[in-house]
């Protein structure tokens, strides 16, 4: 008997129509799958595919306007589909644990985390106050938090994102449930923290035999961590099967497209330009890491979507569009100075993409803000197009603002919800006094056409567009004043893989057509490999390594770079042969081997 069996699940949402009349909109259509004891089943698909709704229906946590219209949910052979919320309380925590997506919104901000972990134990009457306090500390220690007695007394805002996610895992496993539903448990985390969290879930599962229903849009994570995969689209299952079989020979066209678009699962390809060939032809130079400098290792020429130059000669790189020299940013914390950026230097040749990568807190976004003069450096210099930006005021500063534009991470929060799309894209033209109203409106239409949006969106509001469409609007707005440099701060991290692939292709096309220079800020090395020509790796405010993208991915010289690359999900599953598959350990076996290694080391 399977631990969980879902048969013909149908779910709808009730919404108000144009005249205020409620109507039901189907979200999940006849979904069926099973989860065996101790295995990981990944439910994958794009936003709106119904994967989270399916998981919420299993645990009885649909939103108020959600309704379970039909189907059976068998937990250990018992149908819980028609149970009341009161009956389901006995199931939640004790038999099914939940790790939600967003630790910032899933924890109560006014209660210490130890109290919140203890609530699950108190609700299910698992001991007196002293026993629960002791168990909370044991759980925090088990999920890898240092000083668990101290952490138990802290509030969520005092913990990092990775620590908060570990607290949610501690809550989920507190009662040793038979099934854990992990709904995008690492989507907001850096790759190294993501790996630690997923390893933790694997190890806990291997110890207790708990099964995991993993809901994710990250095909790399699903490839690494699941035994079986369920692919959903528009509320229906497109394909299901063993992960190895789905990765190696997808049967559905939609699955094949998802796998093709997933950056982590693509065969490595590196962009090649005059600058990369010139840098790669130079003999390697080693500089002490303490100075925050970088190395450029020798490597062979590269090919990629833009193709080689084909001259066979070593070319001088084009003049730099951005020059950053010995940049420092200090803040005061508790009366003592804290260096968020410490001696950062790099150059971005005109018409190329330079990526700044690193974990949260590494200083990459602060560096980008100083490049744009949105933050003043403590020391050091930034030059755009050969002109120093320090001390610019008035008309000269406005000219800089026009030359350097920004695309933010979140397409949901960076567009004014009160404005139409036409007004959003036109706003920079009005601000810089470019053209009269008819000319500006024509320019807006040209920009929307450039980013492949139909004229029909002109009168709509941002809420009426998809995430990918919103990000296209944000790109069109950035292009409106005709910038030479565009800073992209995690500009694709919030998007599904297929939409992400479309935006990356669009950025490449715009760069080739308009000669744009990009400064690309990201923690996703799989995306960086696809879009950048050169890379600087940042850690604790310093650049520890720099070079062409090919050099850093094929011959990383710094331990921190190697750790980042090793943590990229899906690395072991990139196409390795004609069938496009790679050898992999089943999730259960991989976790068991890791645990055995940990035991041997104790």
TrEMBL record:
Domain ABC transporter: 4-259, 322-565
Keyword Cell division in annotation: no
Keyword terms: ATP-binding, Nucleotide-binding, Transport
Any Pfam family: oligo_HPY
SMART domains cross-referenced by the UniProt entry: AAA
CDD domains referenced in this protein's UniProt entry, alphabetically: ABC_NikE_OppD_transporters (cd03257)
Recorded GO MF terms: ATP binding
Superkingdom of the source species: Bacteria
PANTHER family for this protein: D,D-DIPEPTIDE TRANSPORT ATP-BINDING PROTEIN DDPF-RELATED, TRANSPORT ATP-BINDING PROTEIN
Similarity comment: family membership: Belongs to the ABC transporter superfamily.
Protein name stated in the entry: Peptide/nickel transport system ATP-binding protein
UniProt source species: Nonomuraea roseoviolacea subsp. carminata
């Amino acid at each position: 008997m399977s631990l969980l069996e879902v048969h013909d699940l149908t779910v709808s949402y009730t919404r108000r129509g144009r005249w205020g009349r409620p109507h039901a909109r189907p979200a999940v259509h006849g979904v069926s799958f099973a989860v065996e004891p101790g295995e990981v089943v990944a439910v994958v698909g794009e936003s709106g595919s119904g994967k989270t709704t399916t998981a919420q229906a299993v645990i009885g946590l649909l939103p108020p306007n959600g309704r379970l219209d039909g189907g059976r949910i068998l937990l250990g052979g018992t149908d819980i589909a028609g149970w009341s919320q009161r009956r389901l309380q006995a199931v939640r925590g004790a038999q099914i644990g939940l790790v939600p997506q967003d630790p910032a919104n899933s924890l109560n901000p006014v209660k210490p985390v130890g109290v919140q972990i203890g609530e699950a134990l108190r609700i299910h009457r698992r001991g007196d106050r002293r026993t629960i306090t002791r168990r909370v500390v044991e759980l925090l220690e088990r999920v890898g938090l240092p000083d668990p007695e101290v952490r138990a007394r802290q509030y969520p805002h005092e913990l990092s994102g990775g620590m908060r996610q570990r607290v949610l895992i501690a809550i989920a496993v507190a009662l040793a449930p038979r099934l854990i539903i992990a709904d995008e448990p690492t989507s907001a985390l850096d790759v190294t923290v993501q790996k630690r969290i997923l390893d933790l879930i694997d190890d806990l599962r291997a110890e207790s035999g708990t099964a995991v229903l993993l809901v994710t849009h990250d095909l790399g994570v699903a490839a690494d961590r699941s035994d079986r995969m369920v692919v959903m689209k528009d509320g229906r299952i497109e394909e299901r099967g063993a992960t190895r079989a789905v990765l190696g020979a997808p049967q559905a066209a939609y699955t094949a497209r998802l796998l093709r678009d997933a950056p982590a699962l693509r065969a490595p390809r590196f962009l090649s330009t005059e600058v990369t060939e010139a840098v790669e032809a130079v003999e390697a130079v080693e500089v002490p890491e303490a100075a925050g400098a970088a190395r450029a290792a020798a490597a062979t020429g590269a090919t990629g979507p833009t193709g080689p130059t084909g001259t066979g000669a070593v070319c001088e790189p084009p003049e730099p569009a951005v020059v950053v020299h010995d940049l420092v940013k200090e803040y005061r914390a508790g009366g003592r100075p804290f260096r968020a950026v410490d001696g950062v230097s790099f150059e971005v040749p005109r018409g190329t993409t330079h990526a700044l990568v690193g974990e949260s807190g590494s200083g990459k976004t602060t560096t980008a803000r100083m490049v744009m003069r949105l933050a003043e450096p403590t020391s050091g210099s930034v030059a755009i197009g050969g002109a120093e930006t320090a001390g610019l005021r008035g008309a000269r500063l406005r000219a800089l603002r026009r030359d350097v534009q920004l695309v933010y991470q979140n397409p949901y929060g960076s567009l004014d919800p009160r404005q139409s799309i036409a007004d959003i894209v036109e706003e920079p033209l009005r601000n810089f006094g470019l053209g009269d109203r008819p000319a500006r409106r024509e320019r807006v239409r040209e920009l929307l056409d450039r980013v492949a949006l139909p004229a029909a969106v002109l009168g709509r509001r941002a809420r009426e567009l998809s995430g990918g469409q919103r990000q296209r609007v944000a790109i069109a707005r950035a292009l409106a004043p005709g910038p030479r440099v565009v800073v992209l701060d995690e500009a694709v991290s919030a998007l599904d893989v297929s939409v992400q692939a479309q935006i990356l292709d669009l950025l490449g096309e715009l760069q080739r057509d308009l000669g744009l220079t990009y400064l690309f800020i990201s923690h996703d090395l799989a995306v960086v490999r696809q879009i950048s020509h050169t890379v600087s790796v940042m850690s604790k405010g310093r650049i520890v390594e720099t070079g062409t993208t090919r050099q850093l991915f094929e011959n990383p010289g710094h331990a921190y770079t190697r750790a980042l690359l090793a943590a990229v999900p899906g690395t072991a599953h990139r196409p390795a042969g004609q069938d496009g598959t790679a050898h992999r350990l089943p999730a259960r076996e991989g976790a068991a081997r890791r645990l055995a290694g940990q035991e041997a080391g104790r």
